[in-house]
Amino acid sequence: MSAPAPSPLAIVDAEPLERQDEVLTEAALAFVAELHRRFTPRRDELLARRDERRAEIARTSTLDFLPETAHIRADDSWKVAEAPAALNDRRVEITGPTDRKMTINALNSGAKVWLADFEDASAPTWENVVLGQLNLIDAYERRIDFTDARSGKSYALKPAEELATVVMRPRGWHLDERHLQLDGKAVPGALVDFGLYFFHNAKRLLDLGKGPYFYLPKTESHLEARLWNEIFVFAQDYVGVPQGTIRATVLIETITAAYEMEEILYELRDHASGLNAGRWDYLFSIVKNFRDGGAKFVLPDRNAVTMTAPFMRAYTELLVRTCHKRGAHAIGGMAAFIPSRRDAEVNKVAFEKVRADKDREAGDGFDGSWVAHPDLVPIAMESFDKVLGEKPNQKDRLREDVDVKAADLIAIDSLDAKPTYDGLVNAVQVGIRYIEAWLRGLGAVAIFNLMEDAATAEISRSQIWQWINAGVEFENGKKATADLAREVAAEELAAIRKEIGEEAFAAGKWQQAHDLLLQVSLDTDYAAFLTLPAYDQLR
Length: 539
Description:
Blueprint: E1 10-11, H1 26-60, H2 70-74, E2 92-97, H3 100-107, E3 113-117, H4 126-140, E4 145-147, E5 154-156, E6 165-169, E7 176-182, E8 185-188, H5 189-207, E9 213-216, H6 222-239, E10 247-252, H7 255-258, H8 261-267, E11 272-277, H9 280-289, H10 310-325, E12 329-335, H11 344-364, E13 368-371, H12 377-388, H13 421-439, E14 445-447, E15 450-452, H14 454-469, H15 482-500, H16 502-507, H17 510-522, H18 531-537
Parallel strand pairs: 2-3, 2-13, 3-6, 9-10, 10-11, 11-12, 12-13
Antiparallel strand pairs: 1-7, 4-5, 7-8, 14-15
Helix pairs in contact: 1-5, 1-6, 4-5, 6-8, 9-14, 11-12, 13-14, 13-15, 13-17, 14-17, 15-17
């Protein structure tokens, strides 16, 4: 008697979507099921290891480069795989979710790369997960267009040679996809996003002269990078494309990963193309890991922690040096400003800040950087054009002048700034406004002229939590307490109701967002990720 066929994936508690059968084919779901069988047990072990490491940091209040991998860092002979032509010039990358309008605008933006985001800029509703995949397939098949119902404006793709190269970002390891289950266990969202995209598009992209390229988020160790590498090796064999077809850029957006940059590149070396330096998630990770470390780890207002803060400068300079030593791209952080259509003066001031930030990154040796809006593409492009000229990158700048010690990366108290009452108010305002939009299925949200994503909400609630637990006293004499946070949140909720009117307030998820922000900001047990309790409420 032959062995029974593997259990198919079950689609659970999900309303059917138009054209979903083009994404959720039997063959694609069989591939995702096989990824789940082979790799989810190791994912689960690595999530448990995160908790163990967090407990160790709580005990010691320090981090260091790993002694057991010193030989990898000392070996100058290894390099990552050479970049494919489509990924060799990354001087400007635009980020955003994969809704239909954004897909067209991002591809047409003039940026070299589009980070097609299924992670922090996308609330993982079933619709966003499935139709985002469909939009990318349609874009590669050049059968995508969009007409805005309100304005009547139509959008269509430019010629192929003018389009950005897509680098797709799946969800982080901690998030499950509750709508896809095998034997009652949810499949990790990372495997759903990666699996569907790779299965449908790997060969299609090769035919277009490109390839399946990925951004890997929330990585906390080289062992997590090793798991991704094992997945890549299996997936390429399964689909029948050459080993090394996949390229991955890893976001160094956790403090633990900052101590393992070389090891992460080493584990992925046949598939690695670079590392990226973000800000909000990195700061969120510092709070998360060192929340028991006392006053010296208390961060000031998030806007006071610029990339020129000494501990952030140590992180970015180490990243550039590490990448170029190993032949990888170093990609800089986000310019999140959203231009105003009404206030030219606001734009003028903001554009100068963006220009200064991108000039600094290009001058420091980065090979490219991120923007959130098409209007910022020319500004960032000019900064990198001035430094690169006709060269596709500056990987030949080895930055051997950089010497970062382990302690430099966590010298939070080297920053001469303190938490302020206005900082608390801003954290509450942005937290409520972002979470409300996320619960309605929007992951990228314009708030106070900035494009915010889930990382913004994470740093906002983390700062509220940290300041209360550290007993911070603000400049106005008020002390950070749970009661003060509740008072500020109540005032903000009333202000929003007045600002948008009763009807719009009732139609939104404002009270729910208010309650969730306070839950994750005030609970004694610090939630590892805001998106975990939020996902339980996402319908």
